[in-house]
Amino acid sequence: QVQLVETGGGLVQAGGSLRLSCAASGRTFALHAMAWFRQGSGKEREFVAAISWNGGNTDYADSVKGRFTISRDNAKNTVYLQMNSLKHEDTAVYYCAADSQFYRGNAYLRKLPTEYAYWGQGTQVTVSS
């Protein structure tokens, strides 16, 4: 019952910045913890960042810590991923996902794809040399 649509992907030079947006439909958006995952060519989907249902807690993969910031605006039914200091290895399809249950993420954020029930179609981020 949650539909997600990612936007903001594209081609960017190494060292540049990009902001991804994930627009959600459905009146339960504000009750879900949200996350970003990415999948590079020939690789498994990996955790990037997550935010608790109320925005009070965030977590990041070590590879993006200090460079990426996840945030949400429940009034707009949108979650964001601000990506700075982009590297070649950040090239991937980025997916937005909603937790399978309500009110989670304050104690800890789930990091496995199987713990998220709703997914967007993905948006391509390519960091050029």
Q: Residue-averaged pLDDT, rounded?
A: 97
Strand content: over 45%
List the uncertain runs: none
- Can you write the helix and strand succession as a string? EEEEEEEEEEE
Q: Distance between termini? A: 40 Å
| Multimeric status of the protein | single chain
Q: Give the % helix.
A: under 10%
How many helix segments? 0
The outline comes out as globular
Rg to the nearest angstrom?
Answer: 13 Å
User: Strand pairing plus helix content: what structural class?
Assistant: mainly beta
Main beta sheet: 7 strands, mixed
Number of strands: 11
Written overview of the protein:
The chain is mostly beta strands. The protein is 0% helix and 52% strand. It has strands at residues 3-7, 10-13, 18-25, 32-39, 46-51, 58-60, 68-73, 78-83, 92-102, 116-119, 123-128. The strands form 2 sheets. Strands 2, 4, 5, 6, 9, 10 and 11 form a 7-stranded mixed beta sheet that branches. It has a 4-stranded antiparallel beta sheet with strand order 1-3-8-7, with no helix packed on it. The protein is globular. The N and C termini lie far apart (40 Å).
